[in-house]
Amino acid sequence: MTTTETPYLLRNEPDELRRLEEQAAALAPATRTILRLAGIRPGMRVLDLGTGAGDVAFEVADLVGPEGSVVGIDSSARALAWAAGRTEARGLTNVSFVHADLHDVRLTGPFDAVVGRLVLLYTPEPARVLRRFAGLVRPGGVVVAMEYEMSAAGMLPSTRFGEQVAHWITEAFERSGLDPLLGARLEAVFGAAGLAPAVVLGLQSYRQPGDPTGARMATGILRTLEPVLVRTGTATPEELGLDTLEQRFHRHQTDLELVFRLPTLVGAWTTIGQSRDH
Ligand SMILES: C[S@@+](CC[C@H](N)C(=O)[O-])C[C@H]1O[C@@H](n2cnc3c(N)ncnc32)[C@H](O)[C@@H]1O
C-alpha cells in the first residue's frame, strides 16, 4: 500500500477503534435508514470506503444478505485487523477487507454500490475521491456518502458548558484543515464529482437526561483530539479535564435535565447514469 496524503487525524489506536464502535452504535438507526432509502438491497455487491472498525460494512452485509457481499477499504492495518476479528466473531462470510489508500487503490468493478461514512471528511479533495469510486459503480447502481454536520451537536436548551465542549470539537477539526460542516455541503461535493445527488437528508438523534451517550461521545472524541487542541493552543489539558469530563458532562446534563443533540448525520446518494438535470 502506498500513502501519499496527510496522516489520518484520528489515528486508529485501540481506544479510538473502541470509540468508533460506540459512535457506530449511536449512529446505527440513522445509517440503516439512509442505506435503505438509498436502495441498498439483497444481492448487491458493495464497496465501503474508510471502513474503520467495520460497522458500516456490517450494516450493509445485513441489508445485502448472503447473496450479496461487501468489501471494506481502509488505509489502517490496525483498523482492518480489528474489523476482521469482529467479522469472524459475527460469523459473516460475505464481508472482506482491502488494505489500501483511497487515493491509489486499484479495484476491479463493477460494484452495485459504493458507500462511505465519516471518511470523505479526512480526504483533502472529497469530490476527487467520490468521482474515482463512482467510476466503479455500474449504471443504475448507487453512490452513498454519510458525513456529519457537527454544528448541530449540543445541549438543549443550550448551556455555556455544552457550547464550550462543542466548540473544542469543531475547533479541533477546523484547525486541522477539516470541514466540520461537510455533511451540509455534500450536494456541492457530489456536483463537483460530476454526480447528481437525488437526495441530501440529515438525520438527528436526541438523547434524554440520564442517557450516557452524549457524555461518552464527547469525551471519547476529545480524548482522541486532545493532542491537536493542546498543540494549537485551543485548550490546555487542565481546561479539558479529560479524567473527569465524562462524569461532569453526564451530571450537567442530568442535573439540569438537558437533552443532548448528536451531530446531524447527513446522507447523500445518487444513481449512476442519472442526468444532472433530473
Ligand atoms: C472516522 S473513521 C470512520 C469509520 C467508519 N466508516 C464508520 O463510520 O464507523 C474514518 C476511517 O477512514 C479511514 N481513512 C481515512 N483516510 C483514508 C484514506 N485516504 N484511505 C483509506 N482509508 C482512510 C481511517 O483509517 C478510518 O478508519
UniProtKB/TrEMBL annotation:
Domain of life: Bacteria
Domain Methyltransferase residue range list: 41-149
A Pfam family it matches: Methyltransf_31
Alphabetic keyword roster: Methyltransferase, Transferase
This protein's record includes keyword Nucleotide-binding: no
Annotated GO biological process: methylation
UniProt-recorded Gene Ontology molecular function terms: methyltransferase activity
InterPro entries (UniProt xref): CFA/CMAS, Methyltranfer_dom, SAM-dependent_MTases_sf
Name of the protein in its database record: Methyltransferase domain-containing protein
Lineage of the species this protein comes from: Bacteria, Bacillati, Actinomycetota, Actinomycetes, Pseudonocardiales
